């Protein structure tokens, strides 16, 4: 094998870099004008330290981005010898080599968002600042890592002034924890939520467009409270505080999840809220795992994929949170946009769909089965269940996660008999009586609609928001709303505030769009916004 030359050995590196930038421009043009756009994967560059224990730093960023379906490249600023006891040693990468890594990635790959973690020397901050001026990206998220949860210093106080002067004015978001916020503010004590609010406004004056002061370490707080400030409004973001030793790396993971969501196209506030939910879910799932002997354990970022394997569908317990963003395919729409069902499904799950139903009314049985098999692979790789509309034979043949039936299809109790206790069964219901019957028949959830008029189903009676409310209140099963729902009315639907309404099912809002991935991430962000409380 011919060894690759080091970049320093390539003559006229600038020419190479200009060539790459020109290629990038051309690529963008092709991408915008064809369906290749959908296959572009959102990209976060993490500039951070390596944690040998893999709970925090670069390793946490890679796992978080993987869990969120986003590509993550890495520029390593330091190598730490670290475990659940603490940090045993730190080896700082020379700034010249950090600069080379940055140029390698930024000159070649289409980075959407840069996320920074441990920046252990002023020289590293300076080269980063320089590179970001040379290769601007869509967003910069700065996690000003200074001290590890174990209390070990990862970046000394000398970096504070260069962070303030060079990096924060370029940042879209800065995410200090309590100790870091205090250090940025010259040692100001931060003990209460009101102190955190005040700190957020002061740090905002250092130039970052948004500030998130994280309260993981707030003493005596029953909830995990973070304060978000966008320069205008202060928001208090609360989640339950998970009692666990496994919280090492929460800060890194939160910032990389926010970056991943921004890379997918979310607005800043939606990205922050979705990421806080992600941390809470991962901590809850990992609260009892046991890695290492020290006081600070790592958590499991890929829990969603794991929980699916052990799942639900093999254990016979359906998870209603899967109904959050329910994608229903339509072959007519895919034909119109000249894409395959599998491409459409891939884009929908990459954009954030949490469950998929294949609905093929006209397909030949054998083609339908092949499509279903490929779609199951795609969905399961993302931890998303796949259901088949109506065709129990297809669901059995491809071992789908379940079936969705309408009122004129095979009755749900027969479906249960055929599929057994472990598969998911959904039933379309317009009335309270139908919802009651679905429960008696052993269904797992009901779909209620059409909430709004729609072209997808001919002669479909619209139940409206009031009909949806009535059915939700009466139903003993979780409900997903369907019919004419899109990103402009999804908030109003979820806003009815009845706890067993668990999400929205959509057809046109995802598949009658040029870019399914973008439509799915927008709708996902809208739903997160509509369902997360803020004060
Ligand atoms: N025990 C916990 N339960 C739930 N959320 C937590 C817990 N600890 C931290 N968090 C959340 O994790 C994120 C990172 O916070 P924090 O631990 O303060 O940052 P860092 O890891 O940088 O010290 C925040 O959103 C915080 O609210
Ligand atoms: C390389 C590296 N980067 C960041 C952190 C902070 O993470 P935490 O605050 O959870 O210890 C860390 N411990 N190590
Ligand atoms: Mg922490």
Automatic annotation (TrEMBL):
Gene Ontology molecular functions: ATP binding; hydroxymethylpyrimidine kinase activity; metal ion binding; phosphomethylpyrimidine kinase activity; thiamine-phosphate diphosphorylase activity
Provide the Gene Ontology terms for cellular component. Answer: chloroplast
- Pathway(s) served: Cofactor biosynthesis; thiamine diphosphate biosynthesis; 4-amino-2-methyl-5-diphosphomethylpyrimidine from 5-amino-1-(5-phospho-D-ribosyl)imidazole: step 2/3; Cofactor biosynthesis; thiamine diphosphate biosynthesis; thiamine phosphate from 4-amino-2-methyl-5-diphosphomethylpyrimidine and 4-methyl-5-(2-phosphoethyl)-thiazole: step 1/1
* The Thiamine phosphate synthase/TenI domain, residue ranges: 325-510
The entry's localization annotation reads: Plastid, Chloroplast
Reaction(s) catalysed (UniProt annotation) = 2-[(2R,5Z)-2-carboxy-4-methylthiazol-5(2H)-ylidene]ethyl phosphate + 4-amino-2-methyl-5-(diphosphooxymethyl)pyrimidine + 2 H(+) = thiamine phosphate + CO2 + diphosphate; 2-(2-carboxy-4-methylthiazol-5-yl)ethyl phosphate + 4-amino-2-methyl-5-(diphosphooxymethyl)pyrimidine + 2 H(+) = thiamine phosphate + CO2 + diphosphate; 4-methyl-5-(2-phosphooxyethyl)-thiazole + 4-amino-2-methyl-5-(diphosphooxymethyl)pyrimidine + H(+) = thiamine phosphate + diphosphate; 4-amino-5-hydroxymethyl-2-methylpyrimidine + ATP = 4-amino-2-methyl-5-(phosphooxymethyl)pyrimidine + ADP + H(+)
Q: Which cofactor does it need?
A: Mg(2+)
**What keywords were assigned to this record?**
ATP-binding, Chloroplast, Kinase, Magnesium, Metal-binding, Multifunctional enzyme, Nucleotide-binding, Plastid, Thiamine biosynthesis, Transferase, Transit peptide
Instruction: Give the principal location in a single coarse category.
Output: plastid
Q: Which Pfam families does this one have?
A: Phos_pyr_kin (PF08543), TMP-TENI (PF02581)
**UniProt domain Pyridoxamine kinase/Phosphomethylpyrimidine kinase: residue ranges:** 51-295
Family annotation (InterPro entries) = Aldolase_TIM, HMP/HMP-P_kinase_dom, PM/HMP-P_kinase-1, Ribokinase-like, ThiamineP_synth_sf, ThiamineP_synth_TenI, TMP_synthase
Give GO terms for biological process. thiamine biosynthetic process; thiamine diphosphate biosynthetic process
* Superkingdom, natural source: Eukaryota
CDD domains assigned: HMPP_kinase, TMP_TenI
| Function as written in the Swiss-Prot or TrEMBL entry | Essential for thiamine biosynthesis. Bifunctional enzyme that catalyzes the phosphorylation of hydroxymethylpyrimidine phosphate (HMP-P) to HMP-PP and condenses 4-methyl-5-(beta-hydroxyethyl)thiazole monophosphate (THZ-P) and 2-methyl-4-amino-5-hydroxymethyl pyrimidine pyrophosphate (HMP-PP) to form thiamine monophosphate (TMP).
The family note in this entry says: Belongs to the thiamine-phosphate synthase family.
The protein here is known as: Thiamine biosynthetic bifunctional enzyme TH1, chloroplastic
Record organism: Cucumis melo
């Amino acid at each position: 094998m011919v060894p690759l030359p080091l970049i320093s050995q390539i003559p006229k590196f600038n020419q190479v870099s200009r060539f790459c930038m020109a290629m990038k421009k051309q690529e963008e043009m092709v991408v915008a004008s064809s369906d290749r756009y959908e296959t572009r994967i959102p990209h976060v560059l993490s500039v951070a330290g390596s944690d040998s224990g893999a709970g925090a730093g670069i390793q946490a960023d890679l796992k978080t981005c993987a869990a969120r379906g986003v590509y993550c490249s890495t520029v390593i600023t330091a190598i730490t010898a670290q475990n659940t006891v603490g940090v045993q040693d730190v080896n700082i990468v020379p700034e010249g080599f950090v600069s080379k890594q940055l140029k390698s990635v930024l000159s070649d790959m289409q980075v959407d968002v840069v996320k920074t973690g441990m920046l252990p020397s002023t020289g590293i901050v300076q080269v980063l600042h320089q590179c970001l001026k040379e290769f601007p990206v869509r967003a910069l998220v700065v996690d000003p890592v200074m001290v590890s949860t174990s209390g070990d210093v990862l970046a000394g106080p000398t970096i504070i002034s260069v962070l303030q002067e060079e990096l924060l004015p370029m940042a879209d978001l800065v995410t200090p924890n309590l100790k870091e916020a205090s250090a940025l503010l010259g040692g100001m004590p931060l003990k209460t939520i009101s102190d955190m609010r005040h700190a957020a406004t002061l740090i905002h004056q250092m130039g970052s467009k948004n500030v998130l002061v994280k309260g993981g370490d707030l003493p005596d707080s029953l909830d995990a409270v973070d304060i978000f400030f966008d320069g205008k409004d202060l928001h208090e973001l609360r989640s339950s505080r998970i009692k666990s030793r496994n919280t090492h790396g929460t800060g890194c993971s939160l910032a990389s999840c926010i970056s991943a969501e921004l890379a997918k196209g979310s607005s800043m506030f939606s990205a922050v809220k979705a990421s806080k939910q992600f941390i809470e879910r991962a901590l809850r799932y990992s609260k009892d795992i046991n890695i290492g002997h020290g006081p600070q354990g790592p958590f499991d970022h890929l829990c969603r994929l794991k929980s699916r394997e052990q799942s639900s569908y093999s254990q016979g317990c359906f998870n209603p949170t899967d109904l959050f963003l329910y994608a229903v395919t339509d072959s007519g729409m895919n034909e119109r946009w000249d894409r395959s069902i599998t491409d459409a499904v891939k884009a929908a799950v990459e954009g954030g769909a949490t469950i998929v139903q294949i609905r093929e009314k006209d397909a030949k049985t054998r083609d339908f089965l092949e499509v279903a098999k490929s779609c199951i692979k795609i969905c399961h790789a993302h931890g998303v269940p796949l259901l088949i509309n109506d065709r129990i034979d297809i669901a059995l043949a491809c071992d789908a996660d379940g079936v969705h039936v309408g009122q004129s299809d095979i009755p749900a109790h027969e479906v249960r008999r055929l599929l057994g206790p472990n598969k998911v069964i959904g039933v379309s219901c317009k009335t309270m009586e139908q919802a009651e019957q679905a429960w008696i028949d052993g269904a797992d959830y009901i779909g209620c609609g059409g909430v709004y008029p729609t072209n997808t189903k001919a002669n479909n009676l619209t139940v409206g928001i009031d009909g949806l409310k009535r059915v939700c209140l009466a139903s003993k099963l979780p409900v997903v709303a369907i019919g004419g729902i899109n990103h402009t009315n999804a908030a109003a639907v979820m806003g009815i505030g009845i706890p067993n309404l668990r999400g929205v099912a959509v057809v046109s809002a995802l598949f009658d769009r040029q870019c399914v991935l973008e439509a799915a991430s927008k709708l996902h962000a809208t739903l997160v916004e509509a369902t997360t409380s803020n004060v």
